[in-house]
Amino acid sequence: MHATAGLSRLVAAIAPFREKGPVGALLLGLASGFPFAMIASTLTTRLAEAGIDKRAVTAFALTFLLYNLKFLWAPLIDRVRLPLLAAAIGQRRAWLVTLALAVTVAVTWLGAVDPVANLPMLVAAALAVAFLGATFDIVIDAFRIETLRPDQLGAGSGMSQYGWRLGSAGAGALALVVAERMGWPAAYAAATVFALPALAAALLLGEPATRTAALAGAAAARSLSGRFRDTFVAPIADFVTRRNGWIVLLFILLHKVGDTLANLSLRLLLNDLGFTKDEVAAYDVGFGLVATLAGILIGGILFARLGMMRTVLLSLGLMAVSNLSFAGLALVGHSNPGMAAAVGFENLASGIGGVAIVAYLSWLCNLRFTATQYALLSALASILGRFLSGTTAGALIETLGFVNFYLLTTLLALPGLLLFLWLMRREPGPAPAAGPA
Predict the structure, then answer these.
(1) Is residue 225 part of a domain?
(2) Which of 13, 197, 334, 397 is most buried, with most CB under 10 Å away?
């Protein structure tokens, strides 16, 4: 009896993940992750194998800046209709299909260039992949948000993150396997198979009806200045003129500062404590990935049970406390169980937080400006933490020591948590889902 009841609860818990919207989000995530992998570890491995200077290899990391700057051209994705194709299959699907094909061409080009014979051409190809991959992300995020019902945001956000991680890891692994047997040009061409899930999602989900309805009542500007305002000014004005708009923006800017500082300095701590590469690979990479995937599943279930706002609040608290686990590891010293506990808890909390906060950012977007507003909000969520990590984290660690540094990162998480508590009083958000609509 107890076993049957437990099985029934498990089936009910995973039921939201099997609906069409979240399955589509999984497919979109699979396609989103692969271009990133092609200019990340895959390209690094290829350049190192070719004997390219280490400074030149690390300089390719600058291509990722295009992912941080994508909000600058996201308004064009919201407003520009592709001739003929948009009329045939809809604006969002037209952009999705076009960019899937463009990314495929760019990745194939990147694989075909010989880094030894023509490094400048390789730089151009890598920049093309980064720009088109970032633009692909803009469309994918907008498509996901506009397709999911409010009660599906938690499961959909979780499935999207599962997809991204599987797509990134799968494309990278496939490229290495093929490169070993057939060379790098064939490897990059083979990895483009991960663009196909985006086309499958377009067929499965159709053109987002919610965006079509949101645009139906919006009058199109006829003058050039009016079109500029509608494209670049209106999405920002729509957000900052909301009742709590500025407080929400401040929360988004601050909420991940402590978590980002802690995570980007973790490898420094592990090196300082004398952990070997094998230990780091086993616990930080392997066990950490398992904990993250578990956190994503738990986050989706909590979202369905508690609702969005309470799940976000819980995740903010867990992510703040997870920084204390790093302080504890710094106190304990070289301990594999200690690293497993600290990394496991942090990744579990990050998985839960990823689902809840991505869902929250998605919910905040006006469907008239989905691509622009989500690109802006996601950029704000990471920019301050990354800036502080690059400019002050090292000096703080040298001055305070690791234990006090991680205590500081815990304190830095409190302003975001308190701001969100205040926001919950002013804007309760959607109620927990009672079940599929």
Answers:
(1) no
(2) 197
pTM tops 0.90: no
Residues 63-86 pLDDT 10s:
777 888 888 898 988 888 888 898
252 and 342 share one domain: yes
Q: Which residues make Cβ contacts (< 8 Å) with residue 160, sequence separation at least 6?
A: 25, 26, 28, 29, 32, 144, 358
In a domain, 2, yes or no: no
Residue 134 is encoded by which pair of tokens? 């970032």
Angle between helix axes 153-182 and 288-306 (nearest 10 degrees) is 160
Percent pLDDT > 90 in the chain is 32
CA-based radius of gyration for the chain = 22
Q: Torsion over CA of 183, 184, 187 and 189, rounded to 10 degrees?
A: -120
Q: What is the CATH number of the domain that holds 117?
A: 1.20.1250.20
Q: Could you give the CA distance from residue 251 to residue 239 in angstroms, rounded to a whole number?
A: 14
Kindly report, residue by residue over 3-29, the tens digit of the pLDDT: 665 566 666 667 777 788 889 999 999
Nearest partner of 347 among 262, 254, 251, judged by Cα? 262
Domain of residue 249: give its range: 230-426
